[in-house]
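Record type: monomer structure entry
Structure origin: computed from sequence
Chain ID: A
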Amino acid sequence: MFTTKNLSPKQLSAFTALIVSIPASLIFLIVEKDFLIGIIAFIIMFIGSYFLISFVLEWFIYRKIKLIYKFIYQTKASKKEETYYKYILPKKGIDDVKEDVEKWAAQRSKEIELLRKNESFRKEFLQNLSHEFKTPIFAIQGYIDTLLNGELNNNEVNKKFLQKAAANVERMINLVNDLDEISKLESDEQPLNKTHFVIQDLIKEVFESLYIKTEEFKIKTVIKKGCEQPITVYADKEKIRQVIINIVLNAT
């Protein structure tokens, strides 16, 4: 069934030319009372109207639509883009263009919302990171000040404080490594290898691998009561493992 709801430029030109040509040719037929003249008038009017309307649509409407598509795709003229304008866009109706623009607007809205969330996360992350760096820095500063203020010749205190300072330096190194990992993930230098796994099983594996370390610092590692129910997640298992390891090590 013929519909005018979503015509392409050529179809719209032909349909409009037909509407203009039929009444005009009927007038010629009535005035001249010659069927052949009426047919010739119809053909001439149809062809003339078709090309005129096509030119008007191309110049005043579809050139503007091309600018909209250029803005949407934000690309310079290329062979691929020119092919799109030459073969695909002319077949699109106004409703198709409207749908494309609405999809683009919805996608851009989602991107803006994601950027806002990422910015909020980044601010919170930097605040937490600042706190995480302050703790070992102040601890190292305290150990050094104590040694410089008279305990430098006390071998027992000397060794104990230097060991604690070394542990805090290691903690800072872990934080820097975390920043490096985040930077690589954001720049897609280190793609994620996502799989399905039970997060509790991974936590138990980490606890077992760090058993000697946690025993040394008398840290008890357990899964919180009420969280025993297996939870399957879809993520990069090794990256999550490293995160859990860093959390446990930062507590030592």
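Annotation 1: The chain has a mean pLDDT of 77.
Annotation 2: Residues 66 and 89 are 8 Å apart (CA to CA).
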